[in-house]
Design a protein that fits this description.
Helix content: 25-40%
CATH architecture: 3-Layer(aba) Sandwich
Number of domains: 1
Structural class: alpha/beta
Order of helices and strands: EEEHEEHEEHHHEHEHEEEHH
Strand order of the largest sheet: 6-9-10-3-11-12
Shape: globular
CATH topology: Rossmann fold
Length: about 250
């Protein structure tokens, strides 16, 4: 589904990604962990086409297409989704209109007819239940006045509506209380299918108690330096990242 080869990327002339290699197959959940400043959020931003970052070397293939040559909106229509660490508010734009536009633009890209108003509202009701999104929130402007937990639930609701092939969750657990964490985690798990994949970027084990990863990577200093099974999460929780640095000869 996704193949990253020797990816290098910079921002304001400073190199952040220094040779990322990563392959994600259909149906897999990958966790990417690592200390602050290691390049986790930069990787997510580069994949979705954030123009602040410059790719200086390497390639990314997504569903057989050269991802780096596509505009951000085309990457989204193709099936790439990013749940932001800090979702923004969009005053004056209702959730209903925002999501209906997004869903119908994706259908247009796929050569399909737009949803009728009734079909869209029916779909919206079904997806809201996945993340227990309050009806009052769904009828307000996008994220305006939402708590941190409500914004994150709203991100997963949007993910459910757009039905992406590959979802990237960038520290979705940041700022969540126990109940919101459970609801978000269970919502993501319910959306998992053999045809879709997910990348979970996180510092902590707690989100991965709900979203079970198949493969865990440690990203450090712009490179993936360790890849293993789910047990690696427990090792990192117990021992931190110093033992990784020791293996690299940096301590």
């Amino acid at each position: 589904m996704l193949e990253i080869k020797d990816l290098h990327a910079s921002i304001n002339g400073k190199e952040i990604l220094k040779g990322i290699n990563l392959t994600i197959n259909k149906g897999e959940v990958h966790a990417i962990m690592g200390p602050n400043g290691s390049g986790k959020s930069t990787l997510a931003s580069v994949l979705v086409g954030n123009p602040a970052y410059e790719v200086t070397k390497g390639s990314v293939t997504f569903l057989g297409q050269d991802l780096l040559s596509l505009k951000p909106e085309d990457r989204s229509h193709l099936g790439l989704f990013l749940s932001f660490q800090y979702p923004v508010e969009i005053p004056g734009v209702s959730m209903v209109n925002f999501m209906r536009t997004a869903v119908n633009e994706k259908l247009k890209y796929e050569g399909k007819e737009p949803l009728s108003a009734s079909a869209f509202l029916r779909m919206m009701r079904e997806k809201k239940e996945l993340v227990q999104l309050d009806n009052k929130l769904a009828n307000r402007a996008v994220n305006e006045g939402f708590s941190g937990g409500e914004k994150k639930r709203n991100e997963i609701f949007q993910m459910a509506m757009l039905d992406p092939k590959l979802s990237i969750l960038d520290e979705t657990d940041s700022g969540l209380d126990i109940d919101a964490l459970r609801i978000v985690g269970e919502g993501v798990t319910k959306l998992r299918t053999p045809e879709t994949s997910c990348v979970v970027i996180t510092h902590y084990q707690r989100l991965l108690d709900y979203i079970k990863p198949d493969i865990v990577h440690v990203l450090y200093n712009g490179r993936i330096v360790k890849t293993a099974g789910p047990k690696l999460v427990l090792d990192l929780e117990k021992r931190g990242y110093d033992w990784i640095k020791e293996e690299l000869g940096e301590l």
